[in-house]
Structure formats: structure tokens, C-alpha cells
Amino acid sequence: MFKGFRDFLLRGNVIDLAVAVVMGTAFTAVVTSFSSGLINPLLAVFGGTDELGLGFRLVSSKPATFVAIGPIISAFLNFAIVAAVLYFVLIMPMRHLTNRFGTKKAAEPTETELLIEIRDLLAQRDAEVARHEADHRRVEAEVEADAAVDRGAGQDSPRR
């Protein structure tokens, strides 16, 4: 029971996935700190004199109705930063390495090419069937000719 669990854990893809999750979590913490330390104060500059930051109040006399736009913009910027870093640091280099050293898949044939191949295979099969039938008729004709010769030889032979 434990051997199977150990084999599962020690497979390469499980360990790689665990490393990726830990690294992603750590990187997200870095981006969040960057956002809260630098981007949020910059967004608060645009928020005006309100201590709540960038946003607006639905009811001006009630602070609980404040709609904060700053955290939404900050979340979008966090997402964009994480996505850009992942793309430029992981995806592009892996694509480059795969294109350079990886195996290239053969191009999938088009529908027309498949139909042409089917047509050619059917024509080849029909030619083989016709050749086989001609061979069969030739053998039957030879057998009948031999039988006729045997019958004719039997009639021509003198009777005793």
C-alpha cells in the first residue's frame, strides 16, 4: 500500500507539479507585496482626499457604501504581472526549446488528401481483384482444357 503511494509521489510529474505550486504561491506573494507597496499608493493619489482610496460612495453620507476601485485595478495589475512573467519566463523559453530540440509532428493530411488516398487504395484493390479473377479464369480454362484433352484422349484410344 505504501509502496504504491511512494511510487505515485516520486513520479516526476507529481514532484514537478508540487514545485510549480510552491513557486507560484511564492511569486504571487511577491507580486501582491509589490502591488500593495507601490501600486496601491499610486492609485490612492488618484483617489482624492478620501481616506478610503480610489473609488466612490453610492450614498455620500454613508461610508459603508464606498465602492473601492483601487483594489480591483490592483487585482487586474497583479494578474497581468503574473501572466506576463509566466509567459515570458516559462512559456516562451519552453516553446523555443521545444521547437529547437523537440520532435515535430507530421502535418495532418487535409480532407482532400485523405479522399485521394482512399480513392487510390480502392483503385489498387479493384485492380488486384480483377487480376485475381483473371488468374482464376485462366486456371479454370487450363483445367477444362486438360480435362477435354483427357476426355479426347480417352475417346481416340482403341477399344479392346
TrEMBL record:
- SUPFAM superfamilies to which the protein is assigned, alphabetical: Gated mechanosensitive channel (SSF81330)
InterPro entries reported for this sequence: Mechanosensitive_channel_CS, MS_channel, MSC/AndL, MscL_channel
| Record's keyword annotation contains Ion transport | yes
TM regions (residue ranges): 21-46, 66-90
Q: Where in the cell is it found?
A: Cell membrane
Instruction: Kindly give the Pfam families that the UniProt entry links to this protein.
Output: MscL
**Alphabetical UniProt keywords:** Cell membrane, Ion channel, Ion transport, Membrane, Transmembrane, Transmembrane helix, Transport
Membrane-related topology note? Multi-pass membrane protein
- State the residue spans of region: Disordered: 133-160
Classify the source by domain of life. Answer: Bacteria
> Which PANTHER family does the UniProt record give?
LARGE-CONDUCTANCE MECHANOSENSITIVE CHANNEL (PTHR30266:SF2), MECHANOSENSITIVE CHANNEL MSCL (PTHR30266)
Q: Give the record's family classification.
A: Belongs to the MscL family.
Record's HAMAP family? MscL
Role summary: Channel that opens in response to stretch forces in the membrane lipid bilayer. May participate in the regulation of osmotic pressure changes within the cell.
Subunit comment = Homopentamer.
Name it.
Large-conductance mechanosensitive channel
Species per Swiss-Prot/TrEMBL record: Nocardia jiangsuensis
| Lineage, uppermost ranks | Bacteria, Bacillati, Actinomycetota, Actinomycetes, Mycobacteriales
